[in-house]
């Protein structure tokens, strides 16, 4: 309703102005005609042309103002887990394209291709994990229907990951079964097993007794990252029926609301006195889960894997940007030192430092993909310089560096260097502060610019850092 009302008022105003202009032009033409008819026509025509041009400009900008706004529509939110996984993989590709370390980038690219291929092939990955000799390999053998690896009582028999292709009744598609080294084993095997566990679409967590604390903590960690898990109580042939029932009850109490009670399954993968494994309850549960959740399990896992790769890519990009930012700060701190050392002023001239900081801000913004104009950079630099002064950081830096310089050089020489070195020191604190600003999407955070400056001043006033900085400054001057 507001837009038609505005248009109606504008039309009425326009008509009123048009009538007034016509009347004014008539009066003007009549007056000029008394002097000379051609002069009256020429001047009136010129005024009409200028008025039409002005009306055209007004009409154009009025149309811009009143026209319906066509806002760019944001991309639709994913409706399914599969769509979210596709979107995450596309975002990951963009991130990887910005990584300049070719070795690291290629390593991530290969891992991303593996994740993408698994998603495209809709390949299900089942991983068996557990501690010690809980019977993981025996379970893998039973699921395979044949002996697939060595089984023994000795803890940690499986020392390397073993992958098998299996066929489960009533389930289409390729299924990969991985048998892992034992959790809680000493060395790299334990870490590799945990990494493998996070890559599973469905995890079979095998125990042969009640959960002890370390096993429970690992299980909770896996559940916390979204791993669909079955808790498999193996070797039930070692217990009486009452003992098995008690163990299953305890395990269900341990997992509480973290898992469904049906996801605790009791089996005997390699019975002592029977040639045939008792694993049908586990197979039934696996089939039920894969029928109901198979595609979602794959999509959820792909989403998790791509998110983890994205985090690694962001960390590499952050390191890459920090290295570039450090080089920029290092360059401008000595430029600032040269500018300030060349002036005869007895104290650090913060305006001159701000002038140097202006270009530093522009270049730091470019590192983080943010375009900062010279005017905005100057405003930021001056504002930061004033904040430094109000916090007493200038006097603090002078005092801090005076002691350090006099400890390394003669007093007279130290006095001449003080101004330039102080400028470099303050430029460094400013640069570090601007890095925080850009990393935080051009936001100083809850504490504002003052809190960021104080943080970096405190970080850079430690004795070891000050002494390293002074040694670097002396070496720069002597060279």
TrEMBL record:
Q: Main localization of the protein? A: membrane
MF (Gene Ontology): GTP binding
Q: Which UniProt keywords apply?
A: Membrane, Transmembrane, Transmembrane helix
Q: Which CDD domains match?
A: Era_like
Q: GO biological process annotations for this chain's record? A: tRNA methylation; tRNA wobble uridine modification
Q: Which domain of life is it from?
A: Bacteria
Q: Which residues form the G domain?
A: 126-235
**InterPro entries xref list:** DUF697, GTP-bd, P-loop_NTPase
The way it spans or sits in the membrane comes to:
Multi-pass membrane protein
SUPFAM superfamilies found in the cross-reference section: P-loop containing nucleoside triphosphate hydrolases
Q: What is this protein called?
A: DUF697 domain-containing protein
Organism of origin: Adonisia turfae CCMR0082
Q: Top-down, what is the taxonomic lineage of the species of origin?
A: Bacteria, Bacillati, Cyanobacteriota, Adonisia, Adonisia turfae
């Amino acid at each position: 309703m507001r837009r038609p009302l505005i248009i109606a008022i504008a039309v009425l105003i326009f008509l009123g102005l048009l009538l007034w202009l016509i009347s004014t032009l008539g009066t003007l033409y009549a007056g000029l005609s008394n002097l000379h008819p051609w002069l009256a026509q020429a001047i009136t025509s010129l005024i009409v042309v200028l008025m039409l041009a002005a009306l055209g400009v007004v009409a154009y900008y009025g149309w811009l103002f009143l026209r319906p706004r066509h806002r760019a529509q944001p991309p639709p939110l994913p409706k399914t887990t599969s769509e979210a996984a596709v979107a995450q993989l596309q975002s990951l590709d963009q991130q990887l394209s910005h990584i300049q370390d070719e070795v690291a980038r290629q390593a991530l690219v290969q891992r991303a291709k593996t994740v993408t291929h698994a998603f495209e092939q809709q390949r299900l990955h089942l991983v068996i994990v557990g501690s010690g000799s809980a019977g993981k390999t025996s379970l893998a053998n039973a699921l395979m229907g044949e002996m697939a690896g060595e089984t023994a009582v000795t803890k940690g028999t499986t020392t390397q990951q073993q992958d098998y292709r299996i066929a489960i009744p009533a389930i289409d598609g390729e299924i990969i079964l991985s048998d892992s080294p034992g959790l809680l084993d000493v060395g790299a095997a334990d870490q590799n097993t945990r990494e493998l566990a996070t890559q599973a679409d469905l995890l079979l967590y095998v125990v042969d007794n009640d959960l002890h604390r370390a096993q429970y903590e690992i299980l909770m960690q896996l559940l916390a990252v979204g791993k669909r898990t079955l808790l498999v109580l193996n070797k039930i042939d070692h217990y009486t029926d009452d003992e098995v029932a008690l163990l299953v009850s305890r395990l269900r109490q341990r997992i509480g609301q973290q898992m469904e009670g049906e996801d605790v399954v009791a089996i005997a993968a390699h019975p002592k006195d029977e040639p045939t494994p008792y694993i049908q309850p586990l197979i039934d549960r696996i089939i039920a889960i894969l029928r109901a959740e198979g595609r979602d399990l794959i999509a959820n896992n792909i989403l998790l894997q791509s998110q983890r790769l994205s985090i690694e890519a962001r960390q590499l990009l952050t390191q890459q940007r920090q290295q570039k930012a450090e080089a920029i700060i290092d360059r401008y701190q000595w430029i600032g030192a040269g500018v300030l050392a060349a002036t005869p002023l007895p104290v650090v001239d913060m305006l001159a430092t701000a002038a140097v900081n202006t270009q530093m801000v522009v270049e730091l913004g470019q590192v983080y993909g943010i375009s900062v104009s010279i005017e905005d950079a100057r405003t930021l630099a001056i504002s930061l310089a004033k904040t430094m002064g109000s916090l007493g950081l200038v006097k603090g830096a002078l005092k801090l560096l005076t002691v350090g310089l006099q400890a390394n050089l003669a007093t007279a020489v130290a006095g001449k260097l003080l101004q330039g070195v102080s400028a470099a020191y303050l430029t460094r604190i400013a640069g570090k502060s601007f890095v925080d600003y850009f990393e935080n999407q051009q936001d100083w955070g809850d504490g504002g610019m003052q809190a960021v400056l104080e943080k970096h001043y405190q970080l850079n006033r430690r004795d070891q850092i000050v002494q390293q900085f002074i040694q670097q400054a002396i070496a720069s001057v002597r060279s």
